[in-house]
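Before the break, one more example. Copy the sequence into your notebook; we will annotate it together after we see the structure.
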Amino acid sequence: MRYLAFAADYDGTLATDGAVKDATVRALEDLKASGRRLLLVTGRHLMDLRLAFRNLELFDRVVAENGAVLYNPASREERVLAEAPKKEFLDALRAAGVKFEVGRAIVSSWTPAETTILEVIKRLGLDCQLIFNKGAVMVLPSGINKATGLRAGLEDLRLSLHNVVAIGDAENDHALLSLSECGVAVANALPALQQTADVVTKGDCGAGVLELIEQLLKDDLRAYDHRLARSTIAIGVEQGAKRSEARIVPNRDTVLVAGASASGKSSAVAGILEATEQCGYQFCVIDPEGDFEGFAGAIPIGGPTERPDADLVETVLKSPRSLVVNLMGVPLAERPGTFAALLPRILATRAETGRPHWLVIDEAHHLLPTTWAPVSSAIPQELGGMILITVHPERVSRAALAFVDVAVALGKDAGETMTAFARATHIAEPRELPAKPPEPGQALLWRVRRRAPPTLLQTVRAKSERRRHKRNYAQGELSPEQSFYFRGPDGRLNLRAHNLLTFLQLGEGVDEETWLFHLRRGDFSQWFESVIKDEELALSAREIERTRPARVAEGRRKLREAVESRYTGPA
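Here is what the structure looks like once it is written out:
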């Protein structure tokens, strides 16, 4: 569920002439029963609101005085978020003949008193602002508005701004709608608010609220997704005649990123996550092999020699911070089980808080193999908002692939990758594949549910270079597909090096014929380049392979020195 919170203005939105109709109240009750949180955000004084509306208990939080007061109807706790107006200011307004009402932090008046009020503020040198609400004039400390009040209410409820839809009608609702993931104006809203809103209802006041609630209950506002460019993430530019920007919806779309090793999957996903972070969305990366270790802005949990702490994962997810869960410290065979134990806790946190907005699962064919099926009927409902990264889409659970909205395939075999995905999910294979495979920095993009042919995509690249954690490759456990195998010219051996330390140990121990076989074929530099993704180390190895030292012992020494000079683990 993308929209866990519903924030509504009172006068002119929920209420008509100060009163809320019974049908609107029933709709609010239905919305609350769906598990969503309700917030009332109004310019009214709290005491005045209590007298006008007898159903305040429907709301989880009430933001009154245009953002200056936060009220919890369940506990009846009231928190003032701004300073009270100064006595000298109130005295000066009375002396100037201004009629007004005073709240805990707000001074409320009516037009055309704004001119006199501004003169008083200027004369006294006060740090105040005027906010208009049709005919009303509100004086508040600078920086206080409906957006700051909504933010405080959501923090109280441990919800994200990216999981709220807000609806309003007047000037003071601009900040409210702008802060929300989806901002809605009722049909009777001021023209300026309608112009900046993401959606405008067909109905006035309560009828417009009913319209919005019905759509929320019907499809969680999925029908509005195409209108919310500001609440989506760009993943690249489609290379058609129009060169349109391709965007995906956080906490909604599930994206498959597939391709051979070294095809650029991790780099493409890093570009998506960098944009995600810049927009303030939270991501959680399940990282079996340390490819995302050190990703800027994300809290690392677990490491090459340390299992991830499930309690810590849950704690961080309840904060706005993104995280990378490193499974390198978990033996390879145990990683699927460790992930299976983590998944229900991650999804339970998402159901409660809306976070993480993206759940990124690297090596999905290993963590979600074809044998995987959700143990709870509740899990499929929360499996949207994923990014699945894999070399082998045909080896990923069909139950997980069924959620894929967007497939991105990289590498020279991208067309075959798309076909393998289609066959694994039992859907029609993609039609009219581009004649040429994607070049580096490009991918095939297939919007699966539209049934349109795949298009060529220029992917978004990360602006900052990711720093791979050297210990992961030095001491961690790479998957069988990523490991180096000493086999020799006749294939009599099958010695697996699952990290650089083991590689050096086996390289010292194998016979000279086997070592020379791999040297002459360029296997060492190829592994360093395609799996370890260390171009400098690959260049050093390629030079050793090119010169072919006269003595094997000398070649082994040079290769060891090249590795140890860059990786602290084996030293």
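The radius of gyration is 29 Å. The chain has 20 helices and 25 strands. Try to locate both features in your own notes.
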